[in-house]
Amino acid sequence: MLVYMAPLAGLFVMASIFQVLFASDIASLCGALLGGVGGFLVARGLSPRLAARQSWQPVILNVALPPDLLRVDTPSSDMGQ
Q: InterPro entries, alphabetically (predicted)?
């Protein structure tokens, strides 16, 4: 979601600011380009930190297989001992 929303928000915010400040469509276009690139860079900078969090990792909620076809291996804490 961050990858999509940060550039989009940057695009709209910077285009609006440039439109208000310079009252020109060309300035608005430049602001949109600047905001989109800036939002992409923000998303690129934040994503490694967010990906390292355990709470942000995907979790499988349901597997559409019968129980006899599914084998689950879970790591246990006493394997290293």
A: SigmaE_reg_RseC_MucC
Domain borders along the chain are: 1-46
Asked whether the predicted pLDDT for residue 75 surpasses 80, the reply is no
Predicted pLDDT of residue 14: 94
Take residue 36 and report the two structure tokens written for it: 């989109």
Average pLDDT of the segment spanning 16-29: 93
Burial of 60 (0-12, 13-18, 19+ CB in 10 A): exposed
For residue 20, what pLDDT is reported? 94
Residue 76, helix vs strand vs coil:
coil
Helix (H) or strand (E) holding 65: none
Q: Which of 12, 11, 2 is nearest to 33 (CA)?
A: 11
Q: How far is CA 52 from CA 31, 43, 49, 55, 60, in A?
A: 32, 14, 5, 9, 18
